[in-house]
Amino acid sequence: MSKDTLTITDNRTGKTYEVPIQNGTIRAMDLRQIKVNPDDFGLMSYDPAYKNTASCTSRITFIDGEKGILRYRGYPIEQLAEKSTYLEVAYLLIHGELPTKEQLEYWTNRIMRHTYIHENLAELMKAFRYDAHPMGMLISSVAAMSTFHPEARNIDDEAVRQKQIWRILGKLPTIAAFAYRIRIGRPFNYPDATRGYTGNFLYMLDYMNERDYEVHPTLARALDVLFILHADHEQNCSTSTMRAVGSSRVDPYSALAAAAAALYGPLHGGANEAVLRMLTDIGHVKNIPAYIERVKKGELRLMGFGHRVYKNYDPRARIIKKIAHEVFEVTGTSPLLDIALELERIALEDDYFISRKLYPNVDFYSGIIYRAMRFPVDMFPVLFAIPRASGWLAQWVEMVQDPEQKIARPRQVYLGPEQRDYVPLDQR
Ligand code: CMC
User: Fold this and answer.
1) What pTM, to 2 d.p., does this model score?
2) Pocket of ligand 1, candidates 229, 288, 361: which has the most ligand atoms within 8 Å of its Cβ, to mutate?
3) CB-CB contact of 247 with 407 (8 Å)
4) Is 388 near ligand 1, meaning CB less than 6 Å away?
5) pLDDT tens, residue by residue, 358-374
6) Which stretches of the chain drop beneath a pLDDT of 50?
């Protein structure tokens, strides 16, 4: 009869151990009993970059990378992208269920009421140099927010947690828009709650002194869908950072600033910026074969391709490709799109990419859309951070309430020198 256990034989000692299997995992701590002698520390698992280690249980986001499936709280991403809105999805991620009409109205009102930032924070932002990267400004400004809302450190108080969530979701677009306005040397536009979440964001970025200024509804909706697609992606680098830093019981602003810093890297949220730079470097469809050859020789990576989890077409990339065409109907097409489409076509037929299961990921097309909407390239990671904040916060709330979680503290395998005596400077 089958049993949900794993039998391990330690060939060093000949001893046999039986450890339980639960949810397709064994507990790493169950390995600790495996010792060669009583003084032995016990067996550990070694897993650089956590390629096969589950650090938590979660009920938020489901991904099947082989089949290309992504669901938030059980709802397929395709249905949410078609029928929902970003703020509704943020509620779903954080609260676990879709809101009723009243709940959604209250949630939206609370978030939109928190779109203003403290004037001193706005002043602080003005102190950045004219060419400061907006992601650097966002990370620092979010960290600074903890000083404006010191009660946020009471993370065990549910009402306090809730308030910081409204504040973060409300204020992030404002900080992002202010960072952008500083970059282009224009005065701030203060939030207009009546324009909706993405409508207000585009308004804060764009508005000068036009009469009857309106945000184009197709662009506001396209951005809203992009926000839905970027809202959560289970235990990626930045989300794991949010959980790890949050596990020290620090306030959510400090943890979220750390998560945003993780997102800034070119292998994570910085990838869409890298995609655009790559497409610009390629310059013309005729240069693609030579570029692919360099990638295959290992000189370059094809940015926007490949994923730790998806070994199939990223379901978000499919939806984004469709939005790209809707946006181009408003903004006009871009030669970079032709390069991207051809690059994708060639790569998907090439054995190098097929054998390694390298498919376009979410960042492959998002950068082209953002560029068409006239966002400067360095705003791209910021456009990832704004919606991902809802995922970070959902995961943070889950972590804070999980009785199994403790401060994150991995082990190491020490391979350095044995003990040795200090050598004075004049004898070295
Ligand atoms: N271009 C060319 N070769 C690649 C690429 C790529 N983009 N990605 C992976 N490979 C190759 C890699 O060289 C290796 O080949 P080999 O077995 O011959 O050594 C093989 O595929 C496996 O790669 P890996 O580095 O072990 O894969 P990983 O799971 O550690 O990396 C990744 C995942 C996303 C960091 C990587 O695919 C990559 O660098 N992609 C480009 C950056 C990018 O688009 N990042 C955005 C990810 S999606 C947004 C997000 O979630 O942040």
Assistant:
1) 0.92
2) 361
3) yes
4) no
5) 998 888 888 889 989 99
6) none
The answer to whether 195 touches 223, Cβ cutoff 8 Å, is: no
pLDDT number for residue 229? 96
Domain residue extents for the chain: 1-45
First to last CA, the chain: 66
**Residues 98, 92: Cα–Cα separation, whole Å:** 5
Looking at this protein, which amino acid is placed at residue 176?
A
Q: Which amino acid is at 47?
A: D
Which DSSP category does 298 fall into?
T
What amino acid is encoded at 184 in this protein?
I
Cα separation, 254 vs 245, whole angstroms: 8
Catalytic residues: 268, 307, 363
Cα of 312 from ligand 1 centre, angstroms: 13
**CA distances (Å), 338 to each of 227, 281, 353, in order?**
24, 14, 20
User: What pLDDT, on the 0 to 100 scale, is given for residue 110?
Assistant: 98
Check: CB of residue 254 under 8 Å from CB of residue 248. Answer: no
Which amino acid would we find at residue 245? V
Among 310, 309, 276, CA closest to 381: 276
If we measure between CA atoms, which residue out of 53, 74, 45 comes closest to residue 244? 53
Question: Which pLDDT score, from 0 to 100, does residue 308 have?
Answer: 86
Pairing of strands 69-72, 61-64: antiparallel
What tokens were used for 397? 């709330």
DSSP 394-428: HHHHHHHH-TT-----------S--------GGG-
What one-character DSSP code corresponds to residue 13?
A: T
